[in-house]
Specification:
This protein is an all-alpha fold. Helices cover 78% and strands 0% of the residues.
Length: 251
């Protein structure tokens, strides 16, 4: 059992890196009413990874990171422009962009004999196979993103928010997959939205940390997919947190 827990340590640290940036950004995403931005930009970053793979760039190398980051930044720039041009339908535009990126990935991998497996890995992630050797660059980028976020996020313009968000998603999508990236951003933020303002951030972090820890342990015990279990554990903990929030009268 101790050996199993040691294997889970690196995936758990990867989850902490994802939560470090996504939890504070989640509240901002809910406030702006652009819930599916994370899903869209994560899918665009995944599309960059697919293109890099088709070009036979080294897996996990800086070229792969650059391809994912370039795709995510291009998506962020496009969403900045659409929000400025047609703000009243921004959420719909985000959804369309997600569908286009997802179907583009399917088309690009249609002739690849391992295309289905590759798509599944990008969506559900392979967090259980993350090693400490893969975490050095994400850890450095996460520290940079957090410094910029907590230092300047209140003064960030629309473009700055989207670009910083794109960089955070680029780091996380290759570690944990599109589904977990979205769940890490939105689920804790939803669970704490009726708690007092001062409690929201620490409680959201607690939901995230507990969800990753519980999901990884259960996946090892029951031999089930880690990413899917973590998503469900995050959701259950968020529901419990919401249920424990102070009752607020309507009106």
């Amino acid at each position: 059992m101790n050996h199993d827990l040691a294997i889970l340590l690196a995936p758990f640290v990867a989850g902490l890196l994802v939560l470090a940036t996504h939890v504070p950004m989640g509240a901002q995403v809910l406030q702006r009413g652009i819930v599916f931005i994370d899903l869209a930009i994560a899918q665009i970053a995944a599309l960059g990874v697919i293109v890099a793979g088709l070009l036979e760039l080294p897996s996990g190398g800086w070229q792969m990171q650059a391809a994912a980051a370039s795709s995510a930044i291009a998506g962020a720039l496009l969403l900045t422009w659409t929000e400025r041009r047609w703000p009243e339908v921004q959420e719909a535009q985000i959804g369309v962009l997600f569908v286009l990126a997802a179907t583009a990935g399917i088309l690009l991998l249609a002739k690849n004999p391992h295309g289905g497996e590759h798509l599944r890995d990008l969506l559900a992630g392979q967090i259980l196979w993350v090693g400490f050797g893969q975490l050095a660059v994400p850890a450095a980028l996460t520290a940079l993103i957090l410094a910029m976020w907590f230092g300047w996020h209140a003064r960030l313009p629309r473009l700055g928010f989207y670009l910083l968000f794109a960089l955070a998603v680029t780091v996380s999508v290759q570690l944990v997959g599109v589904y977990l990236v979205f769940a890490s951003l939105i689920v804790p933020a939803l669970g704490v939205r009726q708690h007092a303002q001062a409690r929201r951030l620490p409680l959201a972090y607690a939901i995230g940390i507990g969800g990753y820890a519980l999901g990884l342990v259960l996946s090892a015990v029951f031999d089930l997919p880690s990413g899917a279990l973590i998503v469900w554990c995050l959701a259950v903990l968020a529901v419990l947190a919401h249920a424990s929030s102070p009752r607020r009268s309507v009106g």
